[in-house]
Amino acid sequence: MRKELLWSVFVYTEKETEQISRTRLNCINSPCFIRLDGEIGSGKTFFATCIAKCYGVRNLTSATYLKYSLHKGVKDILHIDFYRIQEAEHFFYDQIEGQIENHSIVLSEWTPDGLELGIPQYKLELKINQSCGRNVNFLRIW
Predict the structure, then answer these.
(1) Cα dist from 118 to 67, 82, 102, 138, whole Å
(2) CA distance 89 to 82
(3) Distance separating alpha carbons of residues 54 and 39, to the nearest angstrom
(4) Chain mean pLDDT for the chain
(5) Are 137 and 36 in contact (CB under 8 A)?
(6) Number of domains the chain is built from
(7) Domain containing 94 — which CATH number?
(8) ω before 31 within 30° of 0 (cis)?
(9) Torsion of CA 98, 57, 72, 30, to 10 degrees
(10) Does the predicted model carry a pTM greater than 0.70?
């Protein structure tokens, strides 16, 4: 798997996170798959919420107990949380893959390695810094 760093920033506040989403993630071509990667509490679901707002979805919440949720907006937002899913690959191919359309953005937390997708993939890495901020890296994966 190859990766290319597209941009990297450091944020301290939720307001800065919202601004980064509006300015850097509001023009993503669809369909695409974005892996939200970080430890527990790093802000994966908050970032997913901010990205969804860019596309007119205001009610995105954690998908941990639902496994996934589909939200209609300017683009369809499919939010998946693989944290509690057994046999993640089967779940993805049986339940999710068929729902991805040309206007879909898939936001995925705790994504397993090895998913074969025919759409552009990105990785949003969130790393908590000791100074109470977060390092945010956005990478293209292929």
Answers:
(1) 22, 20, 12, 20
(2) 10
(3) 24
(4) 89
(5) no
(6) 1
(7) 3.40.50.300
(8) yes
(9) -50
(10) yes
The mean per-residue pLDDT over the stretch 60-74 comes to 75
- For 86, residues 6+ apart whose C-beta sits below 8 A from its C-beta are none
Q: Are strands 3-11 and 134-141 parallel, antiparallel or unpaired?
A: antiparallel
Confidence class for position 30, pLDDT limits 50, 70, 90: very high
Secondary structure (H, E, C), 66-84: CCEEEECCCCEEEEEECCC
**Strand extents, DSSP E, the chain:** 3-11, 32-37, 68-71, 76-81, 104-109, 121-128, 134-141
Residue with tokens 């996934």: 68
Rg (CA), the chain: 14
Domain of residue 80 covers 3-141
State CA 84 to chain mean position distance: 17
Question: How far apart are the C-alpha atoms of 9 and 110, rounded to whole Å?
Answer: 22
Indicate the SS3 state at residue 10.
Answer: strand
